[in-house]
Structure formats: structure tokens, C-alpha cells
Amino acid sequence: MRTLKNAALTGLIMAMAAGSALAHAPYVRPNVTDATGRDHVTVEASFTEDIFAAEVVMRSDAWHIAGPNGDTPITQVTYLRDLAVFEAPTPVDGTYRISSGARTGRTAKMYRAADNSWRMVGEEDEAPPADAILVDVQSITTADAYVTRGAPSDQVLQPTGHGLELLPLIQPGDIVANEAAPFRLLLDGTPLAGVAVTIFREAGRYDGRRIEAELITDADGRVTITASDPGAYMTLIRHRMEAPAGSEVPYRSYSHSLTFVAQGD
Q1: What is the mean pLDDT of the chain?
Q2: Which residues pair with 222 in a beta bridge?
Q3: What's the CA gap between 112 and 132, in Å, rounded?
């Protein structure tokens, strides 16, 4: 393996249409992704309008780290105004997933636009059309990141079957710049086809090219990401759909982000 050296937010968490910009998108970020020889990593979590620039603290009742030793809740979290900070334990060798868990936000309104896409009220610069039919929608956001200590393991690369998941189909530590890295998008364990995945690059904060790629999942929910440069990246996915029967709100708006690092050749 090539080794490498994260209560609801006020207001609905929004992500603008793929390709435009970040708008209070969630992220988690460990201080290292190669945790070899370390018994923990330190993680920051926030909402941002510019990749990895903390703006609004992310709170969650479901912080956890899953790894070869099982699933460990994280309860000791320091909440600042701009970000949350906590230590995530990595006691044994293997691959770990650090996650906010599925965070349920407040109920808002959305409507179908002329292009048949869902638009959130307040998300656009313009007001909804006069004839728009507004429906209730609840946001569910999840932010993930992976770290590896020593030899990698595969447990956390398997679907959990719960919520929106973007799973790497290779070890996260094996993602290398200019090499294809396959992922699969699932919702409650079922592949999601035809969903937009936007990849943001941290270096874009300095060179102006914030968006690395805008991709669409295939019939099996797969998408292939090729990072053009070494460095940190974040995927952002938004998926809106009818809620399961019996839900309190008829529609759901899922947001998911995944932080990863592309290593140099």
C-alpha cells in the first residue's frame, strides 16, 4: 500500500447545483491519513463555502470511528464557533472510517424546477415560480474520511446498508494522482445511478481551479475519480427523493461528503 502523511446546524444545509460552488457543505478532516505508529488522529469538522475553510461548526450526536476493532462512538468533542475538534482512536493496525453519522436537519421547503430537478427554497438567488408546488423536505447530512494505521484492512470498505455512502473500491491509501480511483454510491445499500458527484480540490483555493471534476454515477452506482495533482480533495453529493412510507416528512434531501488525499507518484 502507498501510505499517506470531520444538534443541527442553524438553517438547512445546502449545496448548490453541481459545478457552481460550495454553500455550507459538511466536511471532516483528520490531521493525517497515514496513522502508522499513532494511537489516534485529531479531526476537525465544519461547514464551509470554500473547501476546508471552516466557517460554521458541525455538531453531531453520532460521531464515531469504525475500524478493525469495531465501531467506537466519539463523545469528547470540543465545539468552537467555526469548527468541532476531537481525537479519534486508532489502537490497532488497519483502515478506519471517521464519520459524523447521519445528521437529521430541520424541515424546509423545495419544489420541482422546469428542468425537473429539485430546488430548495432559499437556495437560489431567485424566488420560486408563482406556480411552484412546495413540498416539505428534511435534510440528512453525512461527512466521512478514512485513515490507515500500518497494514490496511477491508472491514470499513464494506457497505453498512444505512444512508448515503460513497465507498472507495480500492484502499483509500492507494489513491494516487493521475491514476483512476473507483468508487460506488449507495443509498441504504442499493446502488444509485445517474447521481451527480462533484470533486473539489484544496489547491483550488490558491490557483482558482476549485472543481476537479463533475461526474455522474453509472447504472451500478460507480464513478471513477482521477485526481490531477497530489493533495487533499472532497467529494460532494446531493440526492433528493421521496421519503420512505411512514416518515414524518414526505421528502428527504441527502448530502454526503468524503475527504480523501491523492498521493504523488
Answers
A1: 89
A2: 184
A3: 7
Mean pLDDT within 184-188? 97
From residue 69, alpha-carbon distances to 32, 37, 84, 143, 145 in Å are 20, 16, 24, 21, 17
Report CA-CA distances (Å) from 234 to 13, 30, 198, 199, 249: 17, 13, 8, 6, 29
β-strand partners of 65:
72, 98
pLDDT, one tens digit per residue, over 150-171 is 999 999 999 999 999 999 999 9
For 157, the 3-state DSSP assignment is helix
- The CA distance from 90 to 149, in Å, is 7
Backbone CA torsion sign across 211, 213, 216, 222: negative
d(CA 90, CA 81): 27
pLDDT at 11 over 80: no
Contacts of 126 (CB under 8 A, 6+ apart): none
Helix runs in the chain, H state only: 204-207
What is the Cα–Cα distance from 113 to 11, expressed in whole angstroms?
Answer: 22
Q: How many CA atoms lie within 13 A of 212 on its CB side?
A: 24
pTM (2 d.p.): 0.87
